[in-house]
Amino acid sequence: MTSFDHTKYRPFEPVAIENRTWPDQEITTAPLWASVDLRDGNQALVEPMTVDQKKEFFKLLVDVGFKEIEVGFPAASQLDFDFTRWLIEEDQVPDDVYIQVLTQARPELIERTYESLKGAKKAVVHVYNSTSKTQREQVFRLGKDGIKDIAVKGAQCVKDHAEKHPETEWVFQYSPESFTGTETDFAVEVCDAVIDVWQPTPEKKCIINLPATVEVATPNRFADQIEYFCRKVTKRDSIVISLHTHNDRGCGVAAAELGLMAGADRIEGTLLGNGERTGNMDVVTMAMNMYSQGVDPKLALGDMDRIVSVVQSCTQLPIHPRHPYAGELVFTAFSGSHQDAIKKCLTNQTDDKPWDVAYLPIDPRDVGRSYQEVIRVNSQSGKGGVAFALEQEYGLALPRWLQVELSPIIQRFSEEDGGVVEAEDMKRLFEQSFMTGSSPYALGNYSLTKDERDKVTAALNHAGGSVNIEGEGNGALSAFTAALSDHFNIRVDIVQYQEHALTVGSDSQAIAYVQANIDGERFNGAAIDNDIVSASIQAVLATVNQKVAEASQASVA
Ligand SMILES: CC(=O)SCCNC(=O)CCNC(=O)[C@H](O)C(C)(C)COP(=O)(O)OP(=O)(O)OC[C@H]1O[C@@H](n2cnc3c(N)ncnc32)[C@H](O)[C@@H]1OP(=O)(O)O
Ligand SMILES: CC(C)C(=O)C(=O)O
């Protein structure tokens, strides 16, 4: 094994730029987006996509709204050639979409590339050669002139073929591959030479694509290279500056964002970031970053589950559960304080206000996710999370004092069960703990009379029999409480009371929550009924039943 020795690496040599302006820029409009899923993404797969997978992926890209789609490297593979032919012959490309194909700057490959494009309405021919010092010296074994010559001859060849097929609307694209490893002045020199061949105009631009083929520096250094390039390149008004970043240092999106601020117009990337090594720049993340700042990304990313599903099935790669905006856990909070804050903010959030919810940079509903999955309860969760889940799923708006009582019960269950507690289990634990109004005593018939004081007479069903109780008070609840106190020879004081209509599952029921002090001990009860008075007296009975059960257990012991 070689030693872990950082001294064998050299730092990146930054371009010398004065008065850089990009740090003060903001991204306020979407760039031109180009998808390279079917080419750069595809060439990085263990098993490249089949034609059927490419067809499905292409449809997704069109639906998402890409207007430039790199569909393959037709001169390199028969499958890519056939797929390109299928798109054209079967008229699969919408009129406003350019299909783009990649080729090396070699005449025989360029010729074959044009064969694949015969009959296309609109196409981008993307030609590249590597310009980096490393590749010049070790791969091509050529000096700068030799490398420039490859680019110029390639550009000329692309132009010559295009002239033979005026029926197609051609756009030319050149990439000085390994741009980040190329002296920026030399990259400008090569691109200027290509531009000189193509003679673009502001009306008929060509694309100069600057790839971070390998990400070798912090994103600010990349932005410096882009701003420098934009200042120096010829005919700036006649070229579209495109970026194609990779993610070797984990900053592919950041580099593209800063590059855009530095003057670029167009961004190449893939949906969810598949691509060579650590992947291409993830278009979903970059576009959603804009979206979260109130900028229209001009891509329709609302059906995130479809995007995830198509990308996964076509690439056969999993999507990380914490992948920005798309992973299955990215809108889910388990920890108590996060849940508490989210629950409070969501209560305040209305559709007419700008989004302002702690821990949620965007509204999960915008990408087809629901609030149900925002809060999931495990042993790290607090009362807010439990309350949120019960309210979302069952319409139970537990008062704060009852949340405090229920939370440790759920936490204990989670610790014993070792994981996430589903809403169904929370409801069952809530019912078992507090909806105890039918055992050992259940409310039978009762009647209320209103006079100076309210009077109640009620039957309590118990062990196959029935006992009658009666009491007086200032209202139904206090009359019933007095009757229970009298019958069981206990002192019952109502400390807390709350009720609300139930909107989930029923439109005519109500729930009452009661906290009672019984002989100095605190008990909590809840009950649901069509009638709110019945619900409230059953909730009181629930607390008394807990006291009675506790007393009988104590006497057995
Ligand atoms: C950063 C990127 O992602 S770039 C895209 C990379 N994608 C791919 O390579 C996938 C498809 N490519 C392929 O299948 C093959 O490379 C093919 C079919 C295109 C060509 O295969 P081969 O003819 O065997 O050539 P190979 O790619 O190995 O390169 C051979 C020669 O072309 C030269 N070459 C490589 N790239 C280029 C280029 N962009 N322009 C001109 N010449 C080039 C090499 O220096 C080499 O020259 P040499 O034979 O004189 O030493
Ligand atoms: C062909 C170029 C643009 C490329 O894929 C890269 O440099 O990563």
Automatic annotation (TrEMBL):
Its cofactor is Mg(2+). It is found in: Cytoplasm. Pfam families: HMGL-like, IPMS_D2, LeuA_dimer. Catalyzes the condensation of the acetyl group of acetyl-CoA with 3-methyl-2-oxobutanoate (2-ketoisovalerate) to form 3-carboxy-3-hydroxy-4-methylpentanoate (2-isopropylmalate). GO terms for molecular function: 2-isopropylmalate synthase activity. Belongs to the alpha-IPM synthase/homocitrate synthase family. LeuA type 2 subfamily. The gene is leuA. Keywords: Acyltransferase, Amino-acid biosynthesis, Branched-chain amino acid biosynthesis, Cytoplasm, Leucine biosynthesis, Magnesium, Metal-binding, Transferase. It comes from Rhodanobacter aciditrophus. Residues 437-557 are annotated as: Regulatory domain. Its main location: cytoplasm. Residues 31-305 form the Pyruvate carboxyltransferase domain. InterPro entries: 2-isopropylmalate_synth_dimer, AIPM/Hcit_synth_CS, Aldolase_TIM, IPM_Synthase, LeuA-like_post-cat, LeuA_allosteric_dom_sf, LeuA_N_DRE-TIM, PYR_CT. Homodimer. Signal peptide: none annotated. SUPFAM superfamilies: 2-isopropylmalate synthase LeuA, allosteric (dimerisation) domain, Aldolase, post-HMGL domain-like. Its EC number is 2.3.3.13. It catalyses: 3-methyl-2-oxobutanoate + acetyl-CoA + H2O = (2S)-2-isopropylmalate + CoA + H(+). Mg(2+) binds at residues 40, 244, 246, 280. CDD domains: DRE_TIM_LeuA (cd07942). This is 2-isopropylmalate synthase. It is an enzyme of class 2 (transferase). Pathway: Amino-acid biosynthesis; L-leucine biosynthesis; L-leucine from 3-methyl-2-oxobutanoate: step 1/4.
